[in-house]
Amino acid sequence: MEDIRKAPVGRPRGFDTDEALERAMVTFWKEGYDGVSLSELARAMGITKTSLYAAFGTKEDLFRRALERYAEGPASYAARALTEPTAQDVARAYLSGAVAASTCADRPAGCLGVQGVLAAGHLGESARAALLGWREEDRSRLSARFQRAVTEGDLPADADPDILTRYLMTMANGIAVQAAGGVPRDDLQRMADTLTQAFPPR
User: Which of 16, 112, 145, 174 is the most exposed place for a label (fewest CB within 10 A)?
Assistant: First the structure.
């Protein structure tokens, strides 16, 4: 992710920026980008609009920061999955991680990234670029991991790493959409287990 500009130096802030950013992430996750105004974001974060601007910049800047926090927190299962020993284990960890992140009891259902993609046409250029860049980084790392699996003989020589990556990401996105629609975690996990057993698709 590209660097975010820092707030101007001045009087110390009277709030915890980390906690405020966590609340902003949850609010974007629950309401979507278009579904919440700056005033509503400020209230959810427990700060004034003036403090929001001073600490985080515009709504677009705040969304980029919230997305970065989401990638490093709830969505960090994607990076952890890459360390699994086989391609099927990667798929299992990736899909199970999507289920867990999309159905956590103290977080909104679904996926902030999927919500953001649905609103991508309404995002400003820098926020849209940050969102697409995050998704492309995820895609690139998964594809490289599956290419390694082909090289090592873990996947068939004719397996297409890019197609397998898009397949897996599509399944994870579908899990998030169904979670947002109220499908229970146990049902989603059974779905993930079934998909894992069939990975790679033939």
Answer: 16
Rounded Cα distance, 51 and 14, in Å = 9
Amino acid (one-letter) located at 119: A
102 burial (CB, 10 Å; 0-12 / 13-18 / 19+) is buried
Q: Can you tell me the distance from the alpha carbon of 101 to that of 138, in angstroms, rounded to the nearest whole number?
A: 16
Domains and CATH numbers, the chain: 17-58 (1.10.10.60), 73-197 (1.10.357.10)
Full DSSP string of 18-48: HHHHHHHHHHHHHH-STT--HHHHHHHHTS-
In sequence order, the 6+-apart residues with CB closer than 8 A to the CB of 169 are 138, 139, 142
